[in-house]
Amino acid sequence: MKQRSNSVRLIALGAAAVLGLAACGGGDSASDDTVAEEATEEVVEETATGTGNDCTAGKTLAEGKLTIATGNPAYEPWVVGDAPESKEGFEAAVAYGVAEEMGFSDENVVWVRTGFDEAIQPGAKNFDFNLQQFSITEERKANVTFSEPYYSTNQAIVGLADSAAAGATKVSEMRDLKFGAQAGTTSLDFITKVIQPNTEPFVYDDNAAAKAALEAKQVDAIVLDLPTALYVSAVEIEGSKVIGQFPLSDQVGADNFGMVFDLNNPLVECVNEAISRMRDLTYELISIEETWLSGYTGAPVISLD
Amino acid sequence: MALGLHRRAGHQPRLTTRQQHERRQRRRSSLIAAASTLVVLVAVVLLVPRMPRWDRVKKSFFDVDQMRDSFPRLIDAFWLDVKIFAWTTPAIFVLALLIALARNSRSPALFPLRALAAAYTDVMRGVPVILWIYLVGFGVPGLGLERPYNSPLLWGSVALGMTYSGYVAEVFRAGIDSVHESQRAAARSLGLSSAQTMRFVVLPQAVRRVVPPLLNDLVSLQKDVALVSLIGPIEILRQAGIDKAKFANFTPYVVAALIFLAVTIPLTRLTDYLWQRERRRTSGTRVAA
Fold it and tell me: DSSP of A219-242, one letter per residue?
C-alpha cells in the first residue's frame, strides 16, 4: 500500500515536471506530446486535486476532503491566534503535515470546532479526526479510537510569584499546598496520584477560573501540561510563573497526545502511517516541534521525592 | 378470606346507579391508561435497541461496569452537595422571611426598607445564579481575605443563599398577601398590635399555605448546589464530569442523575402529599366521587 502510493506519487511528480517542460518548450516533438498527455491524466488523478491516497479512499467524512476538528477556541501554542487554517501552531502544523502525507492538498483540509464532549459522544461525528491535546489513556480507548501519539509531554506547576509554592524543589514540600487543575485533564490525575496533597484539589472549567482562584488565593498553584503551563504563565495569567516541571513517574507516565477518532474508524490506519512516517522517515514531527514548541520546554525540574 | 370477600360483595347493592356508573367509568379509564402505557413501553423497549447506533449509546450512557466503578466516588462527592444544601437552607428561610416582612411593612416611615427589599428580590432573581457564584465566590475572596475565610465553599454558599432568598421571599410575600384582610382587622380589633397580628395571626396561616411552593424551591436549590463546583469544589456533578473525561463515557452523569432522583423524588412526593392535605384542610368537606 505504502509502496504503491509512493510510486504513484513519483510518477505524478515526474509527469508534472515533464508537463512543465513541455509547456515551456512549446512541444518539440510528437512523442513528447503523447507522454505529456498520458501524464496529465495521472496528475489529475493524484496530485493536482490532492484528494487523499489509496488508503483514505472512501474513509473520510466528505469524499476527497479531510475534516479535522480542534477546540473552540483553540489555544496557543497548539494553534496560533485560534486560526488553524493558517497552519501556525504545533497542532495546526501537525494536522497539515498528516494531511499532506495522506495526499490531501491544503484546500481540501476542512476545519470544524468541537468541545471535548462532542468529541467523545456516541453519535455520528462531524470530523474525521479531532486534535486538541487529547491524552491517550487506556480507559478512554473503550469509547473512542486514538491515533499514535504525535506529542509527549510532562506536567508542570504554575503559581503566582508570591505563591506558597514558589521555590519548592520536591514533591514532599508540596503536600500542604492547595492545588487546582482543569476539569477532565490528566493533570488532575497527576495531582491525586503523584503529588498526593493533604487536601482535595479544586477543579475549574478553564484557565480564566483557575486564574481567578489563584488571585483569590483559594489555590496556591495549578498543574498543567508543560507547554500549556509555559504559555499560560507567560501570556494568560499575569504575575505567574512556572515553578517547575515534573519528571515522569511510575504511577503516571508521559502525557501522550493522540488524535481522537470515532470508535473503530478505519481512517486511523492511514493517519498512523502518516504519523510514523513523519516521526521516523521525514523527521517532520520533530521539526514542527522545534518550530512551535522549542520555547515551551524550559523549567526547573522538581524531584518526585 | 373468601367469607370476607363474600360479605363485602354483599354490600355492593347499596351502591346507587350513579355510583355504579362512575365505578365503571373509572375502571374503563384506568384500563385505557394501562393499555396506552404498555404500548408506549413496548415501543420504547422494542424499537430503541433497533436503532443503528443503540449499542454505542448504551455503552456511552448505560455501561453497567462504569456505573459500578463510578458509584462510590459519586456518592462521596454527593455528600458535599448535601452539606451545602443543609447549611444554606435555614439561612435562606430566615433571610427570605425577613425580606418578605420588610416588603409587607406598612408604616410610612419604613418606605426605604420596602424599596430596598423590592430591589433586592428584583436583582437577585434577575441575575443568573452562575454570575452570582462567580462574582461572590471569586470576587469577595479576591479582595484580600486569607484562608480559611476565602473558601469557595463558604462564598459559593453565600451566593446561593442570596439568590434563593430572593425567590423564597417572594413566596413568603405571596403567602402573607393571601391572608384575607379581615383577619388583620379582626386581630387588631381584639387589641393585638401590628407586630402581634403578623406573628400570631397572619404568618401561621401564610406559611402553611406556601409549604408546597417552598419545597418546590428546595428541589430546585438541591440541583443548583452543583453550580458551586464552578469555583473549585468537587461535588457530584463535577466528579461525574471528571469521570466522564477520564473514561470518555457519559455513564457517570446518569449515575449522578439517579442519585439526585433518589433525593428529589421523595421530596416532590412529600410536597404533593402536603399540598393534598392542605387542600383538604382548607377547601371544606371533600365532595364524594
Answer: -SEEEEEHHHHHHIIIIISTTEEE
Does B246 contact A137 at a Cβ distance shorter than 8 Å?
yes
pLDDT band for position B145 (cuts 50, 70, 90): confident
B114/B200 same-domain check: yes
Contacts of A137 in chain B (CB under 8 A): 246
In A, which residues are within 8 Å of B234 by CB distance?
200-203
Same domain, B117 and B216: yes
Output DSSP code: residue A185: S
**Above pLDDT 90, what percent of chain B?**
64
**Which CATH number fits the domain that encloses residue B182?**
1.10.3720.10
- Under an 8 A CB cutoff, do A219 and B60 touch? no
| Domain annotation covers residue B57 | no
Angstroms from B218 CA to nearest CA on chain A: 26
pLDDT-derived band at B287 (thresholds 50, 70, 90) equals low
Beta-sheet pairing, A179-182 with A145-146: unpaired
Of the candidates B141, B230, B238, the beta carbon closest to that of A218 is on B141
Instruction: Tell me: do B113 and B209 sit in the same domain.
Output: yes
Q: Is the confidence at residue A12, as pLDDT, over 80?
A: no
Is the pLDDT reported for residue B76 higher than 80?
yes
Rounded Cα gap, residues B138 and B136, in angstroms = 6
User: Are B89 and B27 members of one domain?
Assistant: no
B69 and B41 in a common domain: no
The answer to whether B246 contacts chain A (CB < 8 Å) is yes
**Are B137 and B192 in a shared domain?**
yes
Amino acid (1-letter code) at residue B131: L
The whole-number average pLDDT for the span A149-159 is 92
Same domain, B27 and B116: no
pLDDT of residue A66: 94
CB of A242 within 8 A of CB of A302? no
Averaged pLDDT score across all residues of chain B: 89
**Structural domain of B35:** 9-45
Within-domain flag for B87 = yes
User: Å from B126 to nearest chain A CA?
Assistant: 23
Number of domains in chain B: 2
Q: How many CA atoms lie within 13 A of A144 on its CB side?
A: 33
> What is the rounded average pLDDT of the residues A265-274?
94
Q: Which residue of B has its CA nearest to A205?
A: B230
* Burial class (CB within 10 angstroms; exposed 0-12, middle 13-18, buried 19+) of B198: buried
In this prediction, the answer to ipTM > 0.90 reads no
DSSP character at residue A205: S
Tens digits of residue pLDDT in A51-97: 888 898 889 999 899 999 999 889 888 999 999 999 999 999 999 99
The CA–CA distances, whole Å, from A67 to A46, A48, A107, B146, B282 equal 19, 19, 11, 50, 66
pLDDT for position A251: 66
B62 part of contact set with chain A, CB < 8 Å:
no
